[in-house]
Amino acid sequence: MQSVRFYEFGNPVEVLRVEDVPQLEPGANQVLVRLRARSINPSDLATVRGLYGSLPKLPATPGLEGMGEVAAVGDGVKHLRPGQRVILLGVKGAWQEYILAASAQLIPVPDAVSDQTAAQFVVNPLTAWIMTIEELALKPGEWLLQTAAGSTLGRVVLQIARLRGFKTINVVRRREQVEELKALGADEVICTADENLNERVKAITGKAGLTKAIDAVGGKTGAAVFQALGRGGVMLVYGVLSMEPMLIDSGRMIFTTSTIRGFWLSQWLGVAPPERQQAVTGEMLRSMAANEIVPPVEAEYRLADVLAAVEHAERSGRSGKVLLVD
């Protein structure tokens, strides 16, 4: 079978290669999955570069999410059958033709959910849902500010906002993204290329102020978002796209009693009770089956064309996810 491999950390287009590796066989309580679609996420590429929070032993295969169909089951697997479509949950190494997973790490895919949507279930939609609904507990009418609003996760947040009734302030770098996001349901859009973030937030939120924000950029943009928080505000940081440190005004933190903290989906999945995880994933799948949450796709590439796919995934201004399909 084909597998994308890397033997050293570095630039993905320089260190990734496609190899033929031995076929896998399921053991007891294991399932062999024939993968059909896999997403390319910033976390995957950060892992290849050696910059992610949890790094694999080399050589390794990238890929933190994907979907496929059950090819074979091992002894003891009762609730899954060959041909059934499944989502990988917490299974690493998805950039290959087949993968082995414990049966408990697979989520059956409803018929109404497409392969393209199922392949993106974990990293962006689940992260967006947990941050906005579980962690920040946004209520109808409340404001949420998000950076990197034109990203796949940012667009999913807009869908969740429409579904749950909260309002969004969306921060982008390019003026051409403003009308595009408004057409997708964004209430307000701030372009940092020619607008002052703090002044616009004050004008939008008035006396109520901004109390909830999520940031994927860090650096100067993240610091500006924190500066715009009002009394008792909370900011979740889930990415560092700028690759720059965030300088925080500690005095403002003290006198506004505002909070900034990190969010990492892997950590949440490791500590959240199983029944809570099942409730969240079940609600997400129902919303996806009803076409209420549909993460966008910009392009699809064959697994063998992974280098071209990675190059595309790292372009700025994308309107959706790049997938590896077979």
Describe this structure in words.
The protein has 326 residues and is of the alpha/beta class. Helices cover 33% and strands 25% of the residues. The chain contains twelve helices and 15 strands. The chain has helices at 12-15, 42-49, 115-118, 122-135, 152-164, 177-183, 197-205, 219-228, 250-256, 265-271, 274-289, 306-313; strands at residues 2-5, 17-20, 30-39, 66-73, 85-88, 98-102, 106-108, 143-146, 167-172, 188-191, 210-215, 229-237, 259-262, 297-302, 321-325. The strands form three sheets. Strands 3, 4, 5, 6, 7, 14 and 15 form a seven-stranded mixed beta sheet that branches. A six-stranded parallel beta sheet has the order 10-9-8-11-12-13, sandwiched between helices. A two-stranded antiparallel sheet has the order 1-2. Helix 12 (306-313) links the parallel strand 14 (297-302) and strand 15. Helix 4 (122-135) packs across helix 5 and helix 7 (197-205) runs parallel beside helix 8. The chain is globular. The two termini are 12 Å apart. The model has no long low-confidence stretch (mean pLDDT 95).
